[in-house]
Request: fold
Amino acid sequence: MTSRTTTPLRDSAPVPVPAKLAAAWTSFMFLYIYVDYYHLYKPGSVDDILSGVVFEFDISPLLLTAFLGLVSLPALMIAASVALPPAPARVASLAIASLYVPVTLFNAVGESWEWAPFYALSIGVELLLLTFILRTAWRWPRTADVAAPAAVAGIG
Reply:
């Protein structure tokens, strides 16, 4: 009789913190952009844009630059999560995610109860992702809990 070593089907290597953060920031970005996109289907949104107004603000180069800045930060965090050394990546994730909690909540300002399901779902999921980012960055270990991938693979 031969003995056979089996590996559980759901066994996987631990996911590095930078990869977790990059994935969470990517999910946040997709949701962030799609919420803005689907908002265009709300009656009156396109009419307001065509008349030069977004929310209460006149559309201007400054406003569009501010909007671009708002969408650029989480987009940059996708790359920063894996490109920066751990300490600055951790601080950046904590700072940017903390900044986006009130920005996310602001999306519900002035909305009617008719649109509550749309905003509850979109804001709720965005807040869950931000909470995951904050928790993951906050609990980032100071030292590696697992061997480096090269050592695991038998390289080096």
The mean pLDDT is 87. The helical segments are 17-39, 45-50, 61-83, 86-106, 116-138, 149-152.
